[in-house]
Design brief:
By secondary structure, this protein is α+β, with helices and mostly antiparallel strands. It has helices at residues 3-22, 279-287, 324-335, 348-353, 376-379, 421-440; strands spanning 30-39, 42-51, 54-58, 70-74, 79-84, 89-94, 101-104, 109-112, 125-141, 144-157, 168-177, 207-213, 220-231, 236-250, 265-266, 309-313, 340-344, 358-369, 390-401, 407-409, 412-418. It has a 15-stranded mixed beta sheet, sandwiched between helices. Helix 3 (324-335) packs parallel to helix 6.
Length: 441
């Protein structure tokens, strides 16, 4: 994979992960939400604060990637404030007022059309096919009823388009909720992302046409897996990103969290807000990840940092349909963050040698393919065919405290999980990780 394509993939993925926190029909009143995002074995943690009609997002850092600015969405003022605390700069971006052409495929009518341009500019047409499907499944997450929704989006530029040259596909599989009194515009068009050093010409403007179909709505993502396919059919790259919610709590929030900080300077050029993209640093850190995606473990006998809890994670047992090592590593990443440090271990002896405070064992007692839901496969034509696969899984976890051998937590996991065996298994691991993190926080 070329360096330019790799950097484009990382920029696109980081933008999409970030936009999942900041865009769309999300909602909350006075809440603090902590979420982890993962991409190609790398993880970061973001914190979101919401108060009535305003939302503040503090994105986490990801190795080698330029730091994303803090954003404050002021829905009452129809604008977004982007802040670089290191440079003490801010940029004001009004909510988009122009309307793209939106065609509802279900009713064959034009819902909205872009007003005629007052002057002629060069440019092409970016066509966006958007399909959304509410599976009808519901479950409780962090005390809220979440809905299970799939979406499929393909964007393809005409040959004379200036803002993008290659097509790409975005597929999501997630659980979403609504919270009261926060309602920002739904954006069907994702953030425009170009390769490094590319600049858009001011005299070239593309027209965006969205053709949408399907029933359902997204909302605030509590769990979400995004598959990104970049490029044409002959030369394409595919990778996945994940979002998981670690904490969702109510609290009294200071109104100044949602205002421009005193003493900061406004910039009219958003580029000045961005930190430098360090490709070499990103590649150097990426090389430190083992070939199987496992981060380097602490040296044997090494002491963990003060205040950090270390968990030794065993390979899950009990079913040959899944790759145990893959799920073990996924569980390690799901648990790692904040004051928790997880590593892979093969035995209690290895866990003690690496100064683990706890061990976590998983036993999958049942994994059976689930039936398809009615005519659902037909309803999601053009979406991910693997999305229709699902498994009913039962498993048990045991969190053991090594100091005295006491069982700290023994959750029973039982549910229906979408995807191929490994993907379904990862979602089971995520559910278990949430319960363990809740117990240890």
């Amino acid at each position: 994979m070329g360096m330019k394509l790799l950097s484009t993939l990382f920029l696109l993925a980081s933008t999409l992960l970030f936009s999942a926190f900041t865009g769309g029909n999300v909602a909350a009143q006075e809440y603090k939400i902590r979420q982890t995002s993962g991409m190609m074995g790398m993880n970061s943690e973001s914190t979101i604060y919401v108060k009535v009609m305003r939302k503040r997002t503090e994105p986490g850092a990801m190795m080698g990637m330029p730091a994303q600015p803090v954003t404050i969405e002021q829905c009452d003022l129809q604008r977004t404030i982007k802040i670089n605390n290191k440079k003490k700069l801010y940029f004001i971006e009004p909510f988009a007022k122009e309307q793209d052409e939106v065609i509802d495929e279900d009713v064959k009518t034009v819902a909205k059309s872009k007003p005629a341009a007052t002057e002629t500019k060069k440019g092409g047409i970016i066509t966006n096919w958007y399909t959304i499907t509410d599976t009808g499944e519901r479950k409780k997450i962090h005390g809220f009823t979440a809905r299970h929704v799939w979406s499929y989006q393909k964007m393809k530029p005409s040959p004379d388009a200036c803002s993008m040259k290659d097509s790409f596909i975005i597929k999501t599989d997630g659980w979403y909720i609504d919270l009261p009194r926060f309602n920002c515009p739904v954006r069907y068009r994702p953030a425009r992302t170009s390769a490094p050093n590319e600049r858009q010409k001011p005299d070239c403007e593309d027209k965006f046409v969205t053709r949408r179909k399907g029933k359902g709505k997204l909302g605030f993502p509590l769990e979400e897996t995004t598959t990104i396919i970049l490029g044409g059919s002959k030369e394409s790259s595919e990778f996945k990103t994940d979002i998981n919610t670690l904490e969702l709590t109510t609290m009294k929030l200071d109104s100044m969290l949602f205002e421009i900080p005193p003493g900061y300077t406004e910039t009219k050029n958003e580029e000045e807000l961005k930190d430098k993209f360090d490709m070499n640093e990103m590649m150097n850190q990426f090389k430190n990840i083992n070939k199987d995606g496992q981060d380097d473990k602490p040296a044997a006998g090494g002491a963990q940092k003060e205040g950090v809890i270390r968990i030794g994670v065993y390979e899950p047992k009990g079913d040959e349909q899944i790759q145990a090592s893959v799920l073990q590593q996924h569980l390690v990443h799901a648990l790692t963050g904040g004051k928790i440090e997880a590593i892979t271990v093969a035995s209690e002896e290895e866990a003690r040698k690496n100064n683990c405070d706890y061990t976590l064992a998983t036993d999958i007692t049942r994994m059976k393919p689930a039936g398809k839901v009615g005519g659902l496969l037909k309803a999601i034509k053009n979406a991910d065919p693997n999305a229709a696969s699902s498994f009913n899984i039962e498993a048990g976890m045991t969190l053991l405290k090594l100091a005295d051998g006491a069982v700290r937590l023994q959750p029973k996991l039982d549910g229906k999980y979408e995807g191929k065996p490994d993907d379904a298994g990862k979602k089971l691991m995520d559910e278990g990780a949430r319960q363990v993190l809740k117990e240890l926080k």
